[in-house]
Amino acid sequence: MTRPEAESRIGELRLEIERHNYLYYVMDSPEVSDSIYDSMMRELQKLEAEFPELIVPESPTQRVGAEPLDKFDSFTHPYRMTSLNNALNGEEFDEFYKRVVKEMPGEGLFAPVFSCEHKFDGLAIELIYENGSLVSASTRGNGEVGELITTNARTIKSIPLRLKPGCPDWLAVYGEVLMYKQDFSALNAARREAEEPEFANPRNAAAGSLRQLDPKITAGRNLRFNSYGVKAREDEKKINGITSHFERMNYLKELGFPVSAHRIRTASIDDITGFHRKWEFGRESLEYEIDGIVVKLDDTGAQEELGYDAKSPKWAIAWKFKPAAETTVLREVEFSVGRMGTITPTALFDPVMLSGAKISRATLHNFDEVLRLDVMIGDTIIVERSGDVIPKVVGVVKEKRPGNARPIIVPEKCPVCGSKVAQEEGEVAYSCTNPVCPAIIRERIKHFVSRQAFDIEGLGEEIAARFIELKLISGFPDIFTLKDKEAELKALDRFGEKSVNNLLAAIEKSKKVEYWRFINAIGIRYVGEQTARILAVAFQPAERLMTATEDELKSADEVGDVVAASIREYFGRAETRDAVMKLFESGVEIVYPKKVDVSDSPIAGMSVVFTGKAEKFSRDEFKELVRRYGGNPSESVSGNTSLLVAGENAGSKLDKAKSLGIRIITPEEFITLLGIK
Ligand code: IVH
């Protein structure tokens, strides 16, 4: 074959192969069998091997994968790739709907038209086409900059390498890379066989396959692409003059992109709700996983008017499905001991896949919950989990209770130290009665050194457990006398000179401790970080807290009967009071917050909310500042809010404050307002 002949045959074959790809992946109606497709592909490969100078990146042969890369280059997106706000239930969707109606041009005169589609559970990519050719593919990354994965994307057969003639000369197309459920199962089966770790879910498998430095691996994974967005350069209206999202998707399909067949366009909220319901129950029938529907304002002009908040468009929402639930069999209940001695039951059950993760245990919280659920070992139970939320046992299928089901009995003896277990009066919890139970000591020390307490690096759980076992420490005060045992520590196996020095230095450094951290660290029942911060402002110095009466304690904000009694009990008991005194004896020094005359504070008595990010203070430091200056820090914006401090990337709280006409200032203005530098 002469070169010109080859060139023309190659051109024909490429067009024909891509046409069959389109029929198969986009139109879902193949015209030829796999073997005919394969024979065309082989012919093309042979010709390209003979005339290698005719190979171009858009050739279908290049889908098998180019040479491996050393690393992915980063890629700056021409437009920021945003994510979506979520609605977790119907009420949250209604809120979105009402807000859009209110903010729509036309002042609520017209019911807005929405486009509804699946929320694919994969990973987002951006494809850029210049003069009809795919020139780059990139992952989302942080929204501004992602990773360049062009060669990998070329291996995905449903991504067109060339667009139909007449397409705009520049296009950015957005969509999701997915792995179909069937391909996921096959991949995991093969990995099991090869004793390779399995992927937890199709999304992870898709992400792992796309982010391969060797494109040949990606090529072997049968990934799919589904598009859901498009942008033209600068002026969005240039997309063939189409200003409806729904129609733009139809246009993408014409250009050669796979677009979901399951879409509706409607102005009726009943239709939207119906679409949600249909797929919440119908999603099992799909070849791919979805975790909700996406509802987008259809008119792109109106989209522009509504604009974006910090991370997401205000004209779209992901209305998620209810958490995934599975039934399984409860095999055993395990008991653990917390830092207050509380015994917590944990359910151990046959593993189930729930929203992508393999789950085999869930806390039952306490024995009241066991009674409430009326659950027995051997029961068929219902376990629920949504997204990355902790799994929960939500019910029991009573009809399936086997004859040999066993009740869950409160253990008489502590599972760790064997001491008596008792229920304190008026309390739900059962506790180990041994104050020196190794589990309690371990948990207390873990809490004492944690970040919101003494923040001692290098005294992790494992090391602490070892020290307790070796009787080097038997309570938190012993941490500060560890330095007297330096030689002993250095003689320990797998604990070198350097780590001992580092640990002792970290302990020394932690001795100067902020007051609220100190209160949190010593472990008073019902006194967590939040209450510790309140007490730190209200009772200075520490001696005042140690001797305050219950009534005095109750005068502080948010301190009620139970907390006040617990604080009194803590300092009234010899062992705990002595432990605290020992801390002082070994040189622990409390750093008190600066006293402020609250009477002339500009925020005295005001409810102040912080949203977004600030350079000058963290969320916790903000709350402390507000309290110190006599204000009340709050998490949510409402009619009672007096002031919103809005930092960078402020989101919905800022919108809400604006709509309520609340005073809004920057973090810098807040610092100036308080008169601090
Ligand atoms: S639109 C400007 N549509 O969900 C809005 N996203 O939670 C950009 N996703 O990063 C996204 N299906 O990975 C859109 N039909 C759909 C989607 C979808 C899945 C993903 C996408 C995005 C994430 C946001």
Descriptive account of the structure:
This protein has about 675 residues and is an alpha+beta fold. Helix content is about 35%, strand content about 20%. It has a five-stranded mixed β-sheet with strand order 2-11-10-3-9. It has a five-stranded antiparallel β-sheet with strand order 14-13-12-16-17. Helix 1 packs antiparallel against helix 2 (about 35-50), helix 12 (about 440-450) packs across helix 13 and helix 16 (about 515-520) crosses helix 17. 2-(butylsulfanyl)adenosine binds near residues 118, 119, 176 and 316.
Short description:
With 677 residues, this protein is α+β, with helices and mostly antiparallel strands.
**Which CATH architecture of the largest domain would you pick?**
2-Layer Sandwich
Count of helical regions: 24
Q: What profile does the largest beta sheet have? A: 5 strands, mixed
Give me the count of strands.
Answer: 26
First-to-last CA distance: 82 Å
Task: Please give the structural blueprint.
Blueprint: H1 3-26, H2 34-50, E1 74-76, E2 86-87, H3 90-103, E3 114-120, E4 123-130, E5 133-139, E6 145-147, H4 150-154, E7 170-178, H5 181-193, H6 202-210, H7 215-219, E8 224-231, H8 245-255, E9 264-266, H9 269-282, E10 290-297, H10 300-306, E11 316-320, E12 324-337, E13 343-354, E14 357-363, H11 367-373, E15 376-377, E16 380-385, E17 392-396, E18 406-407, E19 421-423, E20 430-432, H12 438-449, H13 461-469, H14 486-490, H15 497-510, E21 512-514, H16 515-521, H17 529-538, H18 542-547, H19 550-554, H20 561-572, H21 574-585, E22 589-591, E23 607-611, H22 619-628, E24 632-634, E25 643-646, H23 652-660, E26 663-665, H24 667-674
Parallel strand pairs: 2-11, 21-22, 23-24, 23-25, 25-26
Antiparallel strand pairs: 1-6, 3-9, 3-10, 4-5, 4-7, 7-8, 10-11, 12-13, 12-16, 13-14, 15-18, 16-17, 19-20
Helix pairs in contact: 1-2, 12-13, 16-17
This protein binds 2-(butylsulfanyl)adenosine.
The site of 2-(butylsulfanyl)adenosine has 16 residues, from strand 3, strand 8 and strand 11.
